């Protein structure tokens, strides 16, 4: 979490920093700051809250040719101006921004900085004081910076300015993402290429435990021991319009509406000229070779994994376990003889998932990452990558990445089944095309779903989502969507499980939203709905065409039953969107959250 931008060159530093931070707000948005260096010295501006608040603070009269900026998601210390980055050393000579967590900051304080007065509660401030301490010893900024970075344990992406040295921006990276962007007479750093796409599309990756010295025409990448590293630039494959809202009021609504296009793009990308599935041969081999798949993911991606498990087990006949990444390391199951780890992650940067990846790679197990960001950490560090082709997802609440993950897992399952010589009565490309049309029908009916949101959810304190089989997994996702953006306490439950305790929470008017898309449990889930209705619940059933009753709130277009989650989730996303809007919540940037969770 947290976003970093830095600039050194001849253009307007201020606008590059502020525009960049606005694009990075998805990474954290509780406070922000920028520091700019010019011939009058260092100019530091900070504000609690969003970048808009920071913009109001910045003195427009300041012009500079070097600067660093930061948007924060608090880990150590409350969101406040004092804790906002950039942080400065005691003399004010060194100024620094940091994304990540310095795990040994207390030890470093004790060992090196017992005589320093700290101005914030952050772990970050340790780094800048450490640089100053080591500078006093070595009288050499590069040496002091390298030495300070070598003492850090944990994750960091750092941009630092030495005000006595206006020609160099000091950069370091370990585990947290950071890129160098190359320009004509300027260079930039950013946590994500989208922050600086309006000034350059040429980027250099920085790997873990490297430091980089930047001036406006030169980039010097070094290992921590000082050895120079050669690396070629790549062109960022991103269209600036992908990261704009356009005419939409919120990114979430735009991204919900993009789902049919994403399905069609996936179909295009995963088929050959003969309309057959096209997948990397090495992935096919890895899938054929494994005797058990371990899907590792968090949040919405975990929910997509639960749906994907069904495809792989039913179609490719391979057992699948789905694990929450943050629990896996302590609760590691007994592994099979030939495990294959599949990391599902929209961002490809999630620290909990990465920590499992690092662990299993040490043990020599193969890994496949399914992600929306092919150059991301999880993608680089796994043996194989499957791309989601969903386009940048900006809203914190994941929508199109969830459906893209399910679609790509369906393709993976069918490809594996074919590779194993199984005859299937299921053409995923054809079925996904039907899904795309069904999604369009639903996104065209937003007004009806908006009305349901205002009837059922406008004032409620809590809500329940119930389903059986695949519907249960979608209910988990529907509940997560609703709670994270509307702050209504929402839970997804297996329909049959309610009566074992949770039904005690049902009161007069409690909203219970049920999914009925699976023929084999249609009657069973309807009985569960009756049970809660009898106890006063305000029930609403979303059923698939063919399984509906007259009393259902909404009938979903018919699609192949296996792929029903791709369709049934859409009204739940829309429901959550309007419930949040009705309650005046910030839909795209819900409280306490960030898009890319790069701390464990
Ligand atoms: O980038 P990832 O898919 O690894 O992110 C995992 C979760 O943090 C993410 O899905 C989160 O649950 C979303 N905010 C849900 O909308």
Topology (SSEs and partners):
Elements: E1 3-9, H1 13-24, E2 31-38, E3 41-48, H2 51-57, E4 66-72, E5 87-88, E6 94-99, H3 105-112, H4 124-138, H5 141-151, E7 156-162, E8 169-174, E9 179-182, E10 186-190, E11 202-205, E12 210-214, E13 219-223, E14 228-229, E15 234-235, H6 251-257, H7 259-269, H8 281-289, E16 292-297, H9 299-316, E17 320-324, H10 325-328, E18 339-345, H11 351-362, E19 367-371, H12 377-381, E20 384-387, H13 400-419, H14 428-443, H15 446-457, E21 462-467, H16 470-486, E22 489-494, E23 511-516, H17 522-533, E24 538-544, E25 554-556, H18 564-582
Parallel strand pairs: 16-17, 16-18, 18-19, 19-20, 21-22, 21-23, 23-24, 24-25
Antiparallel strand pairs: 1-4, 1-10, 2-3, 2-4, 5-6, 6-7, 7-8, 8-12, 9-10, 9-11, 11-15, 12-13, 13-14
Helix pairs in contact: 3-4, 4-5, 7-13, 7-14, 9-13, 9-16, 14-18, 15-18, 16-18
Bound molecules: 5-amino-5-deoxy-1-O-phosphono-D-mannitol.
């Amino acid at each position: 979490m947290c976003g970093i931008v830095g600039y050194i060159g001849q253009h307007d530093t201020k606008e590059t920093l502020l525009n960049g931070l606005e694009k990075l707000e998805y990474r954290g948005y509780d406070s922000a700051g920028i520091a700019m260096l010019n011939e009058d010295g260092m100019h530091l501006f900070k504000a609690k809250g969003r970048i808009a608040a920071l913009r109001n603070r910045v003195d427009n009269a300041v012009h500079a040719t070097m600067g660093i900026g930061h948007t924060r998601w608090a880990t150590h210390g409350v969101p406040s101006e004092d804790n906002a980055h950039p942080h400065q050393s005691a003399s004010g000579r060194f100024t620094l921004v940091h994304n990540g967590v310095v795990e040994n900051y207390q030890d470093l304080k004790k060992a090196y900085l017992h005589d320093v007065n700290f101005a914030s509660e952050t772990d970050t401030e340790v780094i800048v004081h450490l640089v100053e301490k080591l500078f006093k010893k070595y009288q050499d900024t590069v040496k002091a910076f390298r030495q300070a970075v070598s003492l850090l344990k944990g994750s960091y992406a750092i941009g630092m300015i030495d005000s006595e040295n206006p020609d160099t921006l000091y950069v370091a990276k370990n585990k947290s993402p950071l890129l160098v962007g190359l320009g004509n007479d300027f260079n930039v750093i950013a946590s994500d290429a989208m922050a600086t796409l309006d000034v350059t599309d040429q980027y250099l990756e920085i790997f873990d435990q490297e430091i980089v010295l930047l001036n406006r025409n030169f980039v010097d990448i070094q290992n921590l021991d000082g050895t120079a590293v050669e690396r070629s630039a790549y062109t960022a494959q991103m269209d600036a319009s992908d990261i704009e809202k356009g005419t939409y009021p919120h990114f979430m609504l735009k991204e919900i509406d993009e789902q049919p296009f994403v399905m069609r793009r996936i179909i295009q990308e995963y088929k050959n000229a003969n309309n057959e599935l096209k997948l990397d041969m090495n992935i096919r081999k890895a899938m054929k070779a494994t005797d058990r798949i371990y899907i590792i993911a968090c949040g919405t991606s975990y929910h997509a994994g639960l749906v994907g498990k069904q495809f792989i087990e039913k179609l490719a006949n391979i057992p699948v376990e789905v694990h929450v990444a943050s629990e896996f390391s302590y609760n590691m199951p007994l592994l099979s003889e030939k495990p294959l780890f599949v990391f599902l992650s929209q961002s490809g940067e999630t620290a909990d998932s990465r920590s499992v990846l690092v662990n299993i790679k040490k043990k020599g197990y193969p890994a496949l990452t399914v992600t929306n960001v092919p150059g991301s950490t999880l993608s680089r560090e796994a043996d194989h990558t499957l791309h989601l082709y969903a386009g940048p997802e900006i809203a914190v609440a994941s929508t199109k990445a969830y459906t893209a993950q399910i679609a790509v897992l369906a393709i993976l399952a069918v490809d594996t089944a074919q590779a194993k010589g199984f005859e299937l009565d299921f053409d995923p490309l054809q079925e996904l095309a039907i899904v795309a049309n069904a999604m369009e029908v639903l996104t065209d009916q937003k007004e009806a779903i908006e009305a349901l949101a205002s009837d059922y959810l406008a004032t409620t304190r809590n809500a329940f989502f119930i389903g059986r089989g695949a519907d249960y997994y979608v209910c988990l996702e529907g509940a997560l969507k609703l709670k994270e953006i509307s702050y209504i306490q929402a839970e997804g439950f297996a329909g049959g499980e309610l009566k074992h305790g949770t039904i005690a929470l049902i009161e007069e008017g409690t909203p219970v939203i049920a999914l009925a898309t699976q023929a084999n449990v249609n009657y069973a889930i309807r009985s569960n709905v009756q049970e809660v209705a009898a106890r006063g619940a305000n029930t609403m059933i979303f059923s698939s065409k063919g399984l509906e009753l007259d009393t259902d709130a909404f009938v979903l277009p018919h699609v192949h039953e296996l792929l029903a989650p791709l369709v049934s989730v859409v009204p739940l996303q829309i429901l959550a969107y309007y419930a949040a809007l009705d309650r005046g919540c910030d839909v795209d940037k819900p409280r306490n959250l960030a898009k890319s969770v790069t701390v464990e």
